[in-house]
């Protein structure tokens, strides 16, 4: 994949978030320099997906701060902020009443205010980049899970984000389809995108991530370069987790 | 007593039917269609407003919608039509005279809006939460996400129920006759009833019934068509099984 990215740094500082009395994030810290990839691993319910939603303010943090290119996101308009941060979901969340092309042109036209031709050209170029230029007229429901996720990635990338968030992007895919999507994400990391990837794919975390953060009970228990984390984990909780998933 | 002869005289008096047919076509059918179509349009617009209010996070919008729905769904249609048609007449006569026709349309629309609002609400609520979340993540505002992504999907899902409601409206339009329409404003039922009273048999009413069926049966088939399309539009197990093959072919193309 050849794409040009204008990546920004992302700093999560002491973010806390609770649903009622249930504290899901208890002071999360994560620093991702521009153009780097951070993988967030951890058991279910550890707060990984909530962390991503706190970063782009789909969920409002109760405390702490998130800085995009050094500026606090809490001071910016949430809708404008999300236009700078792309997000890819576990269940793709493509709009089924639109064609593949329209899924990408809709935000380009309505949010970026591009003209119909300009939006179409940009969307087709993005589809070509993810290898689905021939699926522009198809409905998302007629595509395989892997293809749908690639369209979702194309839709996010078309907005020219400075950071990409991936929320278990391959968890809902059949094993045979995972490789294609992971390959696309690896290409994106290679192209210099700043990425935060919540994943259960330890192979991907090991090979592609610049840093890996292990979350448990709403905090980052341990983080570091993949080699250090996977081969010389300090925390007993991480060692236990790795012994169960590797 | 010759049963067949009695039934024949009561229901199949071709002379009575032939006599009333032109009026039924030119006046009755037209008025029934105007009453039903106007109420469908107004009821759908108002129903969408009620649905959006009912789904609002603001209590002061939600509660009026809930009360409105409870009241207009809970009252017998004939009671609502009489209360609005006769009750508001002293006020509206300053605008369009003692004509009950617009008030009949208003009453039908208000009743329809309560049902259509609930249909829209259930449709919109059936759309997966991830759809709005994806729209918001792209940078759409909440209203834009609802308008461009969630509501269009919700409305499509309830098309069969919506057409069923339109069928009910066609039939309920006959109740407007209680308001005392002018001769030129009579709908199918009233014309059939008047002719039945004049001729002393029910054949004109049977003819009115046939007209109602001519309108409602195609709509019923339209419901079935929407229903079938919605069901068959979903991917089948076979198509899911082909996913892997398609994916591999796509990769092969890409390489």
TrEMBL record, chain A:
- List localization entries: Cell membrane
- Chain ranges of the ABC transporter domain: 10-242
InterPro entries for the chain: AAA+_ATPase, ABC_ATPase_HisP-typ, ABC_transporter-like_ATP-bd, ABC_transporter-like_CS, MetN_ABC_transporter-like, P-loop_NTPase
Q: Which UniProt keywords apply?
A: Amino-acid transport, ATP-binding, Cell membrane, Membrane, Nucleotide-binding, Transport
Q: Tell me the SMART domains matching this sequence.
A: AAA
Record carries keyword Membrane: yes
Among Pfam families, the record links this protein to: ABC_tran
Q: How does it sit in the membrane?
A: Peripheral membrane protein
Q: Which GO terms describe its molecular function?
A: ABC-type amino acid transporter activity; ATP binding; ATP hydrolysis activity
The primary site where this protein sits is membrane
**Which Gene Ontology cellular component annotation is one that this UniProt entry carries?**
plasma membrane
Q: Which family does it belong to?
A: Belongs to the ABC transporter superfamily.
Q: What is this protein called?
A: Amino acid ABC transporter ATP-binding protein
The scientific name of the source species is Kribbella turkmenica
What is the organism lineage in this UniProt record? Bacteria, Bacillati, Actinomycetota, Actinomycetes, Propionibacteriales
TrEMBL record, chain B:
Stated family: Belongs to the binding-protein-dependent transport system permease family. HisMQ subfamily.
To which species is this protein native?
A: Kribbella turkmenica
What InterPro entries does the annotation carry?
Answer: AA_ABC_transptr_permease_3TM, ArtM/GltK/GlnP/TcyL/YhdX-like, MetI-like, MetI-like_sf
Mind telling me what this protein is named?
A: Amino acid ABC transporter permease
Q: Which NCBIfam families match?
A: HEQRo_perm_3TM (TIGR01726)
Q: Where are the transmembrane segments?
A: 33-55, 67-89, 101-120, 205-224
Regarding the membrane, this protein is recorded as: Multi-pass membrane protein
Q: Name one GO biological process term.
A: amino acid transport
Which keywords does this Swiss-Prot/TrEMBL entry list? Answer: Amino-acid transport, Cell membrane, Membrane, Transmembrane, Transmembrane helix, Transport
């Amino acid at each position: 994949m050849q794409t040009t990215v204008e990546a920004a740094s992302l700093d999560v500082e002491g973010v806390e978030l609770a649903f009622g009395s249930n504290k899901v994030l208890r002071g999360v810290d994560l620093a991702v320099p521009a153009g780097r990839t951070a993988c967030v691993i951890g058991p279910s319910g550890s707060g990984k997906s909530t962390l991503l939603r706190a970063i782009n303010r789909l969920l409002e943090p109760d405390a702490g701060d998130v800085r995009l290119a050094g500026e606090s996101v809490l001071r910016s308009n949430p809708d404008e902020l999300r236009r700078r941060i792309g997000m890819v979901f576990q269940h793709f969340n493509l709009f089924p009443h639109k064609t593949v092309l329209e899924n990408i042109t809709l935000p380009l036209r309505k949010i970026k205010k591009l003209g119909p031709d300009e939006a179409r050209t940009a969307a087709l170029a993005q589809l070509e980049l993810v290898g689905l230029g021939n699926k522009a007229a198809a409905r998302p429901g007629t595509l395989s899970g892997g293809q749908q996720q690639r369209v979702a990635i194309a839709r996010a990338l078309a907005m020219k984000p400075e950071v990409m968030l991936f929320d278990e992007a391959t968890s809902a895919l059949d094993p045979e389809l995972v490789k294609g999507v992971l390959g696309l994400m690896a290409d994106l990391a290679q192209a210099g995108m700043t990425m935060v990837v919540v994943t259960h794919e330890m192979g991907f975390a090991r090979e592609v991530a610049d840093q890996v953060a292990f979350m448990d009970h709403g905090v980052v228990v341990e983080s570091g370069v993949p080699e250090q984390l996977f081969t010389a984990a300090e925390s007993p909780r991480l060692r236990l987790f790795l012994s169960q998933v590797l | 007593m010759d049963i067949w002869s009695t039934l024949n005289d009561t229901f199949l008096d071709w002379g009575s039917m032939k006599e009333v047919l032109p009026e039924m076509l030119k006046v009755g059918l037209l008025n029934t269609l105007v009453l039903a179509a106007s109420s469908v349009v107004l009821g759908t617009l108002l129903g969408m407003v009620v649905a959006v209010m009912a789904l609002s996070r603001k209590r002061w919008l939600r509660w009026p919608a809930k009360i409105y729905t409870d009241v207009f769904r809970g009252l017998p249609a004939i009671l609502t039509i009489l209360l609005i048609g006769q009750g508001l007449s002293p006020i509206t006569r300053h605008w369009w005279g003692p004509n009950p026709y617009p008030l009949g349309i208003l009453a039908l629309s208000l009743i329809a809006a309560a049902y259509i609002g609930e249909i829209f609400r259930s449709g919109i609520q059936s759309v997966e939460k991830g759809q709005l979340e994806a729209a918001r993540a792209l940078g759409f505002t909440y209203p834009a996400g609802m308008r461009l992504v969630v509501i269009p999907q919700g409305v499509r899902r309830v098309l069969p129920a919506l057409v069923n409601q339109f069928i009910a409206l066609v039939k309920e339009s006959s109740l407007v006759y209680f308001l005392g329409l002018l001769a030129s404003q009579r709908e199918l039922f009233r014309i059939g009833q008047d002719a039945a009273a004049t001729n002393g048999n029910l054949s004109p009413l049977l003819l009115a019934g046939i007209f109602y069926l001519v309108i409602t049966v195609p709509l019923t088939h339209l419901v079935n068509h929407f229903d079938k399309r919605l069901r068959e539009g979903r991917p089948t197990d076979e198509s899911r099984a082909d996913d892997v093959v398609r994916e591999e072919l796509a990769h092969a193309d890409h390489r």
